[in-house]
Amino acid sequence: MTAFSPVHPRLPRRHALQAGSIGLLGLGMNHVTALRAADAVPQTDAPPARSVIYIFLSGGLGQHDSFDMKPDAPEEIRGEFRPISTSTPGTQICEHLPRLAQRSHLWSLVRSLTHPYNEHSQGHMVMLSGRSKLPPTFNAAKPTPLDWPSIAAIAGDQTVPRNNLPPAVALPERLVHRTGRVIPGQFAGVMGSRRDPWFIEAAPFNGTTYGAFPEYEFHHARGPENRDGLKFQAPNLTLPEGLGRSRVDRRLDLLRHVEEQRVALEQAAPIQQFDQYRQAAISLLSDPSVRHAFDVVNADDDVQDRYGRNSFGWSLLMARRLVEAGVNLVQVNLGNNETWDTHGNAFPHLKDQLYPPTDRALAALLDDLHERGMLESTLIVVAGEFGRTPKTSLLPRHYAQPGRDHWGGVQTVLLAGGGVKGGRVIGSSDKQGAYPADDPQRPENLAATIYQALGLPATAAWNDDLGRPHHIFHGDPIGGLT
């Protein structure tokens, strides 16, 4: 472990969210809430409550095989899949995304997002931070303290908390390579680790298999597999055994559960604020909406059937519930260990393992938000760190069938809600699906679209420890979506 530790605010998967380990008592409320009150930029006119769900397809989704198909191109470019019509005349997407096709009136596409990087960590950095230029101390092997802050970290710092939950959450896991290497771009970086987003680690680290376990687990070379022991386990919002509510009310009884973390707290925030933020964290235990948000594996059968009984479905259900409970930005890392990195066997794995749970869960999310009247105030963004190469290729030493390699030249991003008009296509790629043909967009434009949806003004800035402002917007929001 290096001196820089990005895991401080995350919630260990098997630890109960209890009076001795919640909020500032180990959940990260000490730096997400208490420190914000001490050093955040005062906001007088709070924007209306608006939310974002940023669904990140780590590994990179192939544009040719999803939302920007090239049916008239040579076979090595168009691939094996065929397009189908959507509910929007003239717009076609992959035949293996039928539920999304039926709901195209709710979403729009940007087919011209581009950046110059073909390496995973570089792509993660620019797409998660919204900055095309790499940080001066960028290290693909690990996060560094001078990395650009992630969009989630900025949202957590700049938006107003609406309850005792942090304003920005990432789930169901940190982005970690199968070797255990933590991928840069997810954290607060130069803003300071105390402003990292809150990581809810509901999925165990798994460096062996990929995908939406347990239903759609697979290995890129060997095909469908099931690894025993993988369990999607959300935080348990219960009191420690033997600790009743009357004892919680008597705060002295709680001190023995938090003494080890008190020293760090006293160093991070004024001591006189201790009781205030401890009580804010404890109040999570009595908030039914918070308990309900996390308890996705025990959701009603019909809800789980709609979303899918797998890590993709549970993650998007949790995201919807967290937004409903008052979280401003939820980043959903849909797939462990660069799951979407389909160098080989791409077509059977997309068709049978990746698209079915994604199509089902994303359609259910759109339906739920729309039916609850939340879609207009909730922006959904679906993107990866890059697209895939125009031409398919075969690596016979590793795979039986072809796939596509990394490609930052262009990718398609899906957006819905948050004021986005459905049924639109912004920009286009060239005939090979290699580069933007018109209306190119950059990560800066996507980030600005997210910040605008959160109600942040174009002049918004975060302040460092010396009080110096740092601009948040580095580009204009994507035009033509609203």
Automatic annotation (TrEMBL):
Pfam families per record: DUF1501 (PF07394)
Entries under InterPro entries matching the protein: Alkaline_phosphatase_core_sf, DUF1501
Name the record gives this protein: DUF1501 domain-containing protein
